[in-house]
Amino acid sequence: MWFSIAIVWALVMFIMMPLWHVYGKQNPSTETYKVTPADFQKDVDAFIAKYKVGEEKGVPVVAPPPGSDIYLLAKQWSWSPVLKLKKGVTYRLHLSSIDVLHGFSLYPLSINFMVIPDYEYVLTITPTQAGEYYVVCNEYCGLGHQQMVGKIIVE
Q: What is the full DSSP assignment across 54-75?
């Protein structure tokens, strides 16, 4: 009897996983590309040079036009740049790390994503509430890990 219950439960979970992904929107669908850290750094530098509007604690603040591609770079022990986005507008967020594995966790929302070196992830995002959101690294990345906090400002 217990074996039958375990088999039925395994089948239910097997069917539910694709349903959660497609209909429950539990896992972000992404585009993923192989990229070298140097190439991603160049893309981020060009993005910052084009849309920089200021600095916050030495980190560039960018305000890209609505609907554009935006870039966020993870490196020990920082996220760069600070993003100023518009509420209700869809953006394509490009994420990558140039050194070690990092975790992208958006606080106070419950969004978590792995940021792996040599891969560029493109997430489609639409901010729905104005405010300041903090990007926290949730994968231990070295001695300065606890200070690795970035920011996204939604206006």
A: EEETTEEEE-PPTT-EEEEEEE
